[in-house]
Design the sequence.
């Protein structure tokens, strides 16, 4: 197993939001681990939680930052079709109720809409990635 293979396994670990990945091939066995992301009960109950700004982002008021979280386990799609234009991009202004993306769960496409009006400041999910329940999809300011 070479470094390229190990990096590919590490990518799977992060994209699938796994904490442990065991891989065996012949006599080779590799185990990758990463720290689990823990959410406090209070933060898990909030739809939009305040975040602190980093020094380079001081021009924005991140006290009003809203995390758009996945309401289900499923596959994230940024566009209505593989060739289609993404619903939103970083920097786009969105209105409350506007479709932001799709999540495919049990062969059904589910529209994910904006919980607030504002500007998309970050898209945290990659197109085609499997999302967990409660995972942050994007951030709106």
Sequence:
């Amino acid at each position: 197993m070479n470094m390229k293979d190990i990096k590919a396994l590490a990518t799977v670990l992060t994209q699938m939001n796994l904490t442990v990945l065991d891989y065996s091939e012949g006599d080779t066995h590799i185990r990758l681990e990463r720290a689990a992301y823990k959410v406090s009960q209070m933060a898990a109950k909030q739809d939009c939680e305040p975040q602190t700004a980093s020094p380079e982002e001081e021009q924005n008021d991140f006290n009003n930052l809203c995390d758009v979280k996945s309401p289900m386990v499923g596959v994230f799609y940024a566009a209505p079709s593989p060739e289609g234009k993404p619903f939103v991009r970083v920097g786009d202004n969105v209105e409350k109720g506007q479709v932001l993306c799709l999540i495919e769960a049990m062969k059904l496409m589910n529209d994910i809409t904006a919980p607030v009006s504002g500007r998309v400041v970050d898209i945290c999910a990659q197109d085609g990635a499997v999302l967990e329940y409660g995972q942050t999809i994007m951030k709106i300011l």
